[in-house]
Amino acid sequence: MAQFSKTCSNIKLDGSVLSASCRTSSGGTKPSSVDLDKHIGNTDGYFDISGTNYTTGAKDASLISRTVLSDELITSDGKSTRKARINLDNYVGNNSGSLTWVMTSKGDFASSSSHLSLKGTILSATCKKSDGSSTQSSLDLSDHLGNMHGSLDFISKGFQDASESIELDGTVLKVQLRGDGDEVFCNMLDLNLHVGNDEGKLTWKTLIRV
């Protein structure tokens, strides 16, 4: 699982490198680091875990409350920026003293679903079963996503309470979330990495270690 912050201290960001003192299985600690540029990209001003080299076109990355990566990212037109955030606790784990990038199990619901829609926080689709029939299914994303200082969080719930806008672009969820003040931050999440189709039922998939 992720949530490296539970067993790591002295968490720092130097350029694209996240470092920390991480607890080992024997109870000691050791320094470890992971280069976020190898795991996070920039897609039109949003942090994108499908890409790499987010620092190309970034302004000045910082860590908020130990785990939230915050930056202004250049949009695809090259003329403007978005204030974007991503919660690293969703994706970085401590594997016996080593910071490790983790990924979600590939739900891949889109390959067997059609007529995707989003109303509020309810994702709906027509989902195929193994016998070839189809059924309508829905999933409330607010049961699985919360808000952590303006970033989507996999541990808490009710992200819509701090949202300024919620939209679906294909399988990509785009959300503007309020931080601790009045600022709003852009978040992007490909639901195809997180949602599966289990015999005609949309289901949220858990994190697995790479």
Q: What do these coordinates show?
A:
The chain has no helices and 21 strands. The protein is mainly beta. The model has no long low-confidence stretch (mean pLDDT 94). It folds into two domains: 4-104, HIV-inactivating Protein, Cyanovirin-n; 109-205, HIV-inactivating Protein, Cyanovirin-n. The strands form eight sheets. Strands 1-2-3 form a three-stranded antiparallel sheet, with no helix packed on it. The protein is globular, with a radius of gyration of 18 Å. 0% of the residues lie in helices and 54% in strands. It holds the Pfam family CVNH.
Order of helices and strands: EEEEEEEEEEEEEEEEEEEEE
CATH superfamily of the largest domain: Cyanovirin-N
Query: Please, how many helices?
Result: 0
Largest sheet: 3 strands, antiparallel
What would you call the structural class?
mainly beta
Uncertain stretches of 5 or more adjacent residues? none
Q: What strand line-up does the widest sheet have?
A: 1-2-3
> How many domains is the backbone divided into?
2
Q: How confident overall, as mean pLDDT?
A: 94
Write down the Rg. Answer: 18 Å
Distance between the termini: 10 Å
Dominant shape: globular
Share of β-strand residues: over 45%
What percentage of residues falls in helices of 4 or more residues?
Answer: under 10%
DSSP strand count: 21
CATH architecture of the largest domain: Roll
CATH names the topology of the largest domain as HIV-inactivating Protein, Cyanovirin-n
CATH top level of the largest domain is: Mainly Beta
